[in-house]
Amino acid sequence: MLLAFGNFTADPSVNLQLLIGGLALGAIYAVVALGFVLVYKSTDVLNLAHGEFLMLGAYFALTFLISENLNFFLGVFVLLLVMLVFGLLVHYGIMRRMVGQGFFAIVLITLGIATIIRALLLIFYGPTERGRLDLLPQGSFEIGGATVRHVDIIIFAVVAGCVLLFFLFFKYTRLGLHMRAVADDIEAAAAMGIDPDKVYAMTWAAAMVMAGIGGLLFGHVTGAIDRSIEAIGLRAFPAAVVGGLTSLGGSIVGGLVVGVIEQFANGHLGTKWREPVAFSVMFVVLLVRPTGLWGRKDLERV
Amino acid sequence: MNASGLDLTIEGLTVVYGGVTALDDVKINVPSGGFVTVLGANGAGKTTLVRSITGLLYLHKGRVRRGSIELGGESILGKKSPDIVSAGVAQVPEGRKLFPNLTVKENLLCGAASRSDISGIDDSLEQNLDLFPQLRPLLSQTAGLLSGGEQQMVAVGRALMSQPSLLICDELSLGLAPKIVHRLFELLTEINETRGTSILVIEQNASLALQHAADAYVLELGRVLMEGSAAELRGNPMVQELYLGGGGEAHTSYAAIERPSGGKRWGRKRTGGDS
Amino acid sequence: MTATENPPTQQTAQTYRPSTLQRFLPFAIAAVVPFILGSTTGDVNFWWKALITVVVLAVVARLAWKWTPRGELTHREDMRLWRTPSDRSWAALTTFGLLVLPFILASDFTPPMGFPWATWFAVVNLVLIFAMGAAAFNLLVGYSGQISLAHVAFLALGSIVGGIVGVQWSGGNMWLALPAAAVAGAVVGAISGLPALRLKHLYLLLATFGFHFVMMLVWREYLQEYFGFVGIRFKGENSPRIASWLHWLPGIDPDQNGEFVITGQFRWYWVLMPITVLSILFMVNVVRTREGRAFAAVRDRDVSASLLGINVARSKLFAFALSSAIVSMSGVLASFYIGSRGEDSFNVQTVLNYAIIIVVGGFSSIQGAIFGSAFFWFLPEWFKWAREELWFVRDIDFLSDYPSEIDLAIKGFLVVIILMFKPDGLAGMWRDFKNWLGRTLARSNP
Fold it and tell me: Could you report the predicted ipTM of this complex, rounded to two decimals?
């Protein structure tokens, strides 16, 4: 797949550096894509506000860990707890009423939520940078002439851990089973005594917690915490789609694939090609295999 | 440890979707341990009746305007569906409604969602597999890929997983081969007799339902048109003409039947998603 | 259904046919009086003109109401765009309002409490441009159900075509750029609609969003090639003009150098208003035709639609082509009106703005876009006015510290609240109001 981009420089260490950079970027995409997948998998909602959720997580991380200077673990705990409450708020305040509405109305309401979060963050934190997150190890080491940051490895490990946890949760717990049942057929699930309301609330809470983790991690990569963070939500779309929006593992693979492709496009073709190439890859995947590389095929009943 | 059957009493039930009345003053009684069938054509309000009992009306923007629904003497009207399932009502939904991407075993386990006795669930699973031995080799199959008959067995098994006191089957015969439908009805009778579970069967296939049920109701345009024992209704010329497809001399009686005067009922602007 | 069950309504009471003159007279009055009022600058006091306006409005509405065919309608009469008395009254009122509005806004009258009259003219023109684009967007996603986030890409396409055809080739000929953009929009729109033949819902949304980024790449490449990084300049020597052979038209008064440049809000209004109104009427009419009903059928269930003999692929592509053509045209208008367009003009926030417009307006009706657009542009103006003039808002520092952010928050909350409680949006509220008014009038004036 990478060969398609051709024009490789002779120096292998440049390509290695691009590959490592791509994998690091891909790990971040995977964090975001996992948030999309969680919500889409069990509620069938495409959450366009996930980038803003992540921004919320990053700002809260800044507040709790830097401004309030809490102990790292306590701070992370508080952060995730607050995010969980926000997730419940999103469900019980807004999304609950939207069950059964048309697809586009729900997409638009997530856009509305995104707008609100963005506006409120601008009001309460201001438009300028508010600080930096530097709690994870900042060092790096070298492999074959390419630099690898410790942060990137930590991010990768955390994402893989989360995916594994969610996978086990969906596969082996009752609540996970019920979530999958609701995703398949909400009415039948309700008829079986599963409370869709509770399942949806759990889903939004989980997605928000994931966004909290994502914000914390991403905040370490971007350096400055400012309003540009929200863009990650859109940029991670190709990753989520390439991986298949219903597959947890797919979000990692999709993230890495798209991250690497973007980095190579960036390095060999120029920065302006980064997004178009990523979205073109997404476009091709959509046309050839709409459910992504690992997504489940919906068994459509007419 | 099978729960014995509970009786279901519906009085004066009136249900509306928006401005459209789907059920009007319906009175139905399922005695404890009884086997009752509700017959009716398309649009008679059968599915609405099921939705009202199981608390799923809200998903279709329907609303109970009047009436009461009591299970074993306790009102289940207005309760949420998980509570109703816990109270002992299980249903085999119309069109089976399996979870297509889940395996057969997972589908069955979802039926036990309301149970808190984790250890008892495995026993129920075994019981079900004894009831439907065909399902045993299919346990890890994706449910969406099964044949219609197998899917219906999973649907019935799934409903039984909650150890219901009242089992509601909506259009069990829809789209299935007569042989399989016969087998399913025999199973229902068996469950009814051995476990004492009350059974309410909503059917279009009147002859089969009347063969197995003890009591029967006929719904038309949202009202109870007739009620009585299954034997009585089987003998009724009107039922023979309309639902059993027989009877030569009763040919003209369709127009003569005293029908509920629907009035504006069919002046629908929009269908309320009813099927 | 017998006569005793239904009380006799106006339709069945008696047959009434106005003469042709009577049918068009209210509209003729509504179209002429604004120009009479407008040409009497300075002679007559503003309040007199306001009084005359109100009286004429009342008379026009009443006459249009009265002179409506009643009773058994022929098929032709039944298919008219404005059929009922209420429709005809509102149409006459709207005609009058649209024609008299520029004269009011251009007058030197200053409303009390520092109401920002002068800046409103610019806002009205923006409303017109955005209403046109949003209505076309609404036709595609609301009416045809083909979810697309590519509409801003077509605004960009309009600007590109405007830049090449209107600026580079012809030095500011907007009239050439408009049809060129329509053709380009239709062709590219149909191409961008190709994924719709395979994809639905979510996947279509993502595919069209991908198209947005591809278009942005084209824009960037094109910019560097032809115009440099600053963007395309549509102002100054590139401003649109009225050709000299049309200078005999009434109201056209060439400058010293013998040119009539479209500049200033008043002149722009007379360009933008007719184009917007005509394109929206065109779309409303398309929706009423066989083609339009096919859109709705495909939206509701494409499998059933194909069984009814509708060519689903053709219908989908036609919806994309039509919508994109009109959005591209509004892109040309926006380019020439605003004067310069750069990459920033087409960012993701713009995509969001159009979404806000159609949600607030109500995305089930094409006319909703007008309400949504008006709301979108007037909200900041009202808010600004309130911050500066209203005594109880003026003193809240918090509000004046974050004006645009609070605008954004209000818009976000509105989108959420409208979708939760009133999915029909402002157009739905307007319809409810008209129904209520009609009932009240019918009761008091049987």
Answer: 0.81
